[in-house]
């Protein structure tokens, strides 16, 4: 089975695909006039605006759910794997895909808002919805929904659960079976409570776990601050084949940096749009900008924290394609993964077991919240596939499948877990990138409209009819503008009264 999965990955993640991901992000950066730079101030401001409603969640809660999915085992094990097979130069390409990927995240998340629906009393949206409404190709939306359902409920939870189990086993000797049982019990208590419970847990846990992890990384960096120039130089030289040791694997640096970067920040993957659609906002571009910033939080902050801990302390191995070691600081038997970060922490904070314990707890929080986000995405695609029909049984079944995959992932081999995860990710990336390339125009129109209203001193409100955007049914027929700092609900044409 593992041989078949690996052969499938060789197609899904072939060299042309890697460069296509970079090209799409760069194209959207040009088309949006590098909104990821121009609108940083708005990104931060909008994160804390808006409030939840009976149908939707606040911008911050939607951001938290999205970050639950983005900040996972890829931020620890994924970064180590990229360095292990691509060398320090892979870190630069992770940064590059995050920077240009922020524009892809804007496009897909804004599309999710434009074409969202109010279904069974909740906002729903994502690639399946915007594919059908934006292109009219219902068959394509159905294909994506099934692919997302397969990836989110069956293929990808195992990666997260496996990392948790390995971390707790290494640090505390906890049996993977016990870990798996504990995970599915707590997970069941949360996912059976629906999106509101997921949002409530995420908005508390996500900021806490990210800040705690970054603070420890800053301690590691502070103890090795004299290495800063050398590490930055090594990253850039290795990324462009200018380093004598790592120059021969620049292709691997690009491939692993982009692949693990996308795995971590999920820009263009099609996962972030699902929680983006659930946000209660007055204009789709608002949540698009917030979700673009979540890519920065994931890669430029959390992934960089891991990379700097590893590189500043020199606690890593890098293996060439022929099996020889370019760098071998931890011994030939150590596989790329969380052990790199554990060794880095313990080299600076020599408290017995602190490094392994710290990484294990970090993985527990990071990966567990990611599985929560996976469930929400799977649930949204079930809702899409069962519109107009009773979905109680399918919703229950997807919960059971995800819990089963989580337990199985806790006890299976790491290599198979990652291979299955890469298949799930690859399928979604292929389908979603094609879709957002076809559908980018409405998101670009929304950005120009947002900017025009801001220049007029207005709180931007979306009117698809005025902009010539079709099939944005929620915004055209159901949305009512609630003026900021008031309890009044106004027609869109009267919003200037309270702006």
Describe, in plain words, how this protein is organized in 3D.
The protein has 499 residues and is mainly alpha-helical. The protein is 71% helix and 3% strand. The chain has 22 helices and six strands. The strands form three sheets. Strands 1-2 form a two-stranded antiparallel sheet. Strands 3-4 form a two-stranded antiparallel sheet. A two-stranded antiparallel sheet has the order 5-6. Strand 1 (117-119) and strand 2 (122-124) form a beta hairpin. Helix 7 (89-114) packs antiparallel against helix 16 and helix 9 (138-155) packs antiparallel against helix 18. The longest helix has 42 residues, at 414-455. The radius of gyration is 22 Å and the shape is globular. The termini are far apart. It comes from Metabacillus hrfriensis. This is Alanine/glycine:cation symporter family protein.
- Helix segment tally: 22
What oligomerization state is this entry in?
A: single chain
- Can you list the strand order of the major beta sheet? 1-2
Order of helices and strands: HHHHHHHEEHHHHHHHHHEEHHHHHHEE
Protein name: Alanine/glycine:cation symporter family protein
